[in-house]
Amino acid sequence: MADLDTEQKGAAQTIAFRLWNSRWLLIAGIVAVLAVYALAAISAYVVLAALLLLLAAAMLPTAGARQSTESGPAIEAIGLQRLSGEYLAAAVADPLIIFDRTATIVHANAAAFAAFGGIAPGMSLSLKFRAPEMQALLDGVLSGDVASDVVDYTEKLPVERAYRVSASSVGHATDLYVLVFKDQSETRRIDRMRADFIANASHELRTPLASIAGFIETLRGPARNDPAARDQFLQIMQSQTGRMARLIDDLLSLSRLEMKPYLKPGTEVDLREAVDSVIDSLGPLARENSVAIERDYADGPLDVPGDRDELFQVFENLLENACKYGQSGGRVVVSIARSDAGSEQGIDVTIRDFGPGIPEEHIPRITERFYRVDVETSRTQKGTGLGLSIVKHILTRHNARLSIKSEVGKGAAFSVHLPTH
């Protein structure tokens, strides 16, 4: 019943719309009929019939409306026909190549020229892409065995790139085909990083676990009744469990940082107070390593937008590394200075040690997870290999940056540049 009412309302609206569009023609017809009736002696029935015919004609759809309705698809078709294959190919961000039944290039978009320099219309695809998987892809599509197919392909030069390549025919009976190259390099790089991270984390946890398992076996066997050996082994086991706990804490810190959006922190941090707190907390470690910590702060307020706990962790990691690995220098200098380099006004916090320094080839990779300049020294100092990676993630969140300067035999300087706005 509701559907019937809806249809009736729609029909009434259509009739009213048509009458309104034909109102002037209808008025003119009525005036003409009445004028003829007044001037000529014609029957009233003839006048009524003429008026009804005028009303019926007014309710019919106009030629303009029919033409507009019928021409919509035609106009759309004409617009699509005006779009040449070159325009469509240029609109695709991925490398795209159109070729014919002889595997000869007909057209390639700008992305294809950038990715595979040296291609041109008229060139043979079989000669350009000689890899077996590409040859099999072309043969399968051109033979008609498959309408479309996908393969993985690696381009070696000028740099190695991994692609997911799809091939398919264009339209029907056009004798044209298209290759689209979807770049998978970044996805595969992330997959490799994830696999390496899991392998490194597993190795770092397996080493202390193996050590603890060995000592437990010894304590249950040969050292069962040897108090001196038992105390020594228990001390080592405690040290190894502490190492695993530190590693797990750092892994959790990294996980939390990666889950946070890169939004500017909404609070202000007093760098003078934060750095002083870090120095005080690491005082026992500095004394244990016979390192004197010196301070060199600029005058005036030293406030920056940031998260105090996260920045505390940054300076704690950097100062702890300086005390551990630069202890041979005997001192560490912590300086805070204002930076007015161009438009990037900010504050620089630099932690400098005078130890053995870092060889230049290691500096670009030193913030990678589990990367160590000296594996044995790092493990002796109870390092997890994640401290500088955590520093990098925190500074990224604060729109800050870390710079490292070092000279072998003269120490290393880690500078944190924090923007003031």
UniProtKB/TrEMBL annotation:
Q: Reaction catalysed?
A: ATP + protein L-histidine = ADP + protein N-phospho-L-histidine
Spans traversing the lipid bilayer: 24-57
Give GO terms: molecular function aspect only. ATP binding
The residue ranges of the Histidine kinase domain are 200-421
Q: What CDD domains would the database entry show?
A: HisKA (cd00082)
User: Which keywords accompany this UniProt record?
Assistant: ATP-binding, Kinase, Membrane, Nucleotide-binding, Phosphoprotein, Transferase, Transmembrane, Transmembrane helix, Two-component regulatory system
Query: What's the top EC group for this one?
Result: transferase
Q: Which Gene3D superfamilies has this protein been placed in? A: 1.10.287.130, Histidine kinase-like ATPase, C-terminal domain
Task: Name the InterPro entries for this protein.
Answer: BphY/WalK/GraS-like, HATPase_C_sf, HATPase_dom, His_kinase_dom, HisK_dim/P_dom, HisK_dim/P_sf, Sig_transdc_His_kin-like_C
Q: What is its EC number?
A: 2.7.13.3
What Pfam families does the record point to? HATPase_c, HisKA
Q: Does the keyword Signal apply?
A: no
Per its record, how is this protein called by name? histidine kinase
Species the sequence originates in: Mesorhizobium cantuariense
